[in-house]
Design brief:
Bound molecules: ligand BES, zinc ion
CATH topology of the largest domain: Aminopeptidase
Low-confidence stretches: none
Helix content: 25-40%
Largest sheet: 6 strands, mixed
Shape: globular
Number of helices: 14
CATH superfamily of the largest domain: Zn peptidases
Radius of gyration: 24 Å
Number of domains: 2
Number of strands: 18
């Protein structure tokens, strides 16, 4: 192991250069104008996989390619692990809030700033670098490894959902490893054993057949924007509880053990409030902030549109109003069931003075895995060795819907071993990645494979 760790230390500055090169591709999956950039980015990461000796194929799909790269000389006596990552990134807008251009990485101190650098380019590149260290220092890996790097995670992984059931043999594995999430601090490396699920929907309200003069007609018909606000306002009470009947029916409550584990995460309410930039914190009564944002379900308005948005004022009753919603779900809520009870409730609440249309978007089930299995214990040891601190167990509030599909099609559990820090700004302006987390992530990954191989052999 010393030789592998020494290789990582020796090559650190080149790994940082590679990270910057990778982050320069504007691989924004939500924006069709970037589709050629996504292709180039896929080709770059595929070349990087080939350069370290992985057998690599770029699979074309209906949208962005899927890269599959495997360690050479497949040995059926050894266990196989699948490392998943995504090379697509969130849109960088609004540009004016970035202190440096989002696709021109800038190093400041021990951080690199660029869109997608922690979510998720830096995190899976750390694994790739660790595997390079194994292969280039002439050591025999104790397992087979398959890298699966897709280009549509930020928009729902449509192509991968299609690819997975047709490529079960190619992707077969004993467990999946994903680093696409976070840790509380560099001193608290974590095994994340639960993720929230998600269901997205759009609520559209139609009123008059065209925008109307609000002086001539106002008062004699329902205003769609007001109807939408009233409708949405009824979905949550003042104590932060969702009021939709049946919403909490399938929620598995946190155990006392879990609540104790969660309380190990350092937390300072004032610092958290300041970090969020809000005058006062708000959340479901009876739960800590950490529990609220990781282990309790929510309903959020992601976008709200109606009426005149230009300069000055325009006295109209808008013809329509629309809201984009996502609900974050926890074990054992089902995205389909939640979608149907929310839709039913909205229909019940909607007044007859307007027309309501509810459309469903993407969805993904919540995820929960045992944190006490042999492989989980192996992962905890690798985290401790890589980061040099005791590892903790965490739940996370974000969603990686494909993990449930891995369970369904590959019958494999996922170990979530995040490297992002809370101030990395994923999906926000000035996204960054810590070079210390990058280096610790590489050391963790290098030491993970013997731990997991040993655990898989024992179980
Ligand atoms: N890396 C995140 C998911 C994440 C972030 C998990 C932090 C745990 C902690 C991923 O790229 C992401 O943003 N996922 C989307 C999924 C959605 C588009 C279906 C999310 O959570 O909004
Ligand atoms: Zn993301």
């Amino acid at each position: 192991m010393e030789a592998i760790l020494a290789y990582l230390a020796r090559n650190e500055s080149r790994f940082v250069d590679d990270l910057c090169t990778y982050a320069r591709f504007p691989s924004v999956s939500a924006q069709p104008k970037h589709s050629a950039d996504l292709q180039k980015c896929a080709d770059w990461i595929a070349d990087r996989c080939r350069s370290i000796g992985l057998e690599t194929v770029v699979h074309p799909t209906a949208s962005n390619p899927i890269v599959v790269a495997r360690t050479p000389n497949y040995d059926r006596r050894k266990p196989t692990f699948l490392v998943y990552g995504h090379y697509d990134v969130q849109p960088p807008e609004p540009f004016e809030l970035w202190t440096s251009p989002p696709f021109e990485p800038v190093i400041k101190g021990r951080n690199v700033f660029a869109r997608g650098i922690s979510d998720n380019k830096g995190q899976h590149l750390a694994h790739l670098n660790a595997v390079e260290a194994w292969l280039k220092s002439g050591r025999e890996l104790p397992c087979n490894l398959t890298f699966l790097i897709e280009g549509e995670e930020e928009v729902g992984s449509t192509a991968l959902y299609e690819f997975l059931p047709h490529n079960k043999a190619l992707l077969a594995c004993d467990a999946v490893v994903i680093s696409d999430n976070g840790i509380p601090t560099l001193k608290h490396p974590a095994l994340t054993y639960a993720l929230r699920g998600i269901t997205a929907m759009e609520v559209h309200i139609d009123g008059p057949s065209r925008d109307l003069h609000s002086g001539i007609y106002g008062g004699s018909l329902q205003n769609p924007a007001m109807a939408l606000c009233q409708l949405l306002g009824k979905l949550r009470d003042a104590r932060g509880r969702i009021t939709i009947p049946g919403f909490y029916d399938d929620v598995v409550r946190l155990t006392a053990y879990e609540r104790r584990q969660m309380s190990k995460v350092p937390y300072n309410a004032t610092a958290y409030r300041r970090f969020l930039g809000v005058p006062q914190l708000f959340g479901e009564a009876g739960f800590t902030s950490d529990e609220q944002r990781t282990a309790r379900p929510t309903l959020e308005i992601n976008g709200l549109t109606s009426g005149y948005q230009g300069a000055g004022s325009k006295t109209i009753i808008p013809s329509w109003a629309s809201a984009k919603l996502t609900l974050r779900l926890v074990p054992n809520q089902s995205p389909e069931k939640i979608r149907s009870i929310v839709t039913r409730h909205l229909r019940k609440l909607c007044p007859p003075t307007v027309k309501l249309t509810v459309t469903s978007g993407h969805g993904g089930a919540p995820y929960l895995v045992s944190p006490t299995s042999a492989i989980a214990k192996g992962a905890l040891r690798a985290l401790e060795a890589g980061f040099g601190h005791d590892a903790i167990l965490t739940r996370e509030g974000g969603s990686i819907p494909i993990v449930s599909a891995f369970k369904q099609h590959l019958k494999a559990d996922t170990l979530l071993l995040g490297m992002a820090l809370p101030d990395d700004n994923p999906h926000s302006p000035n996204e960054k990645f810590s070079l210390d987390a990058y280096a610790a992530g590489m050391r963790m990954s290098a030491q993970l494979w013997p731990e997991l191989a040993c655990a898989a052999a024992a179980s």
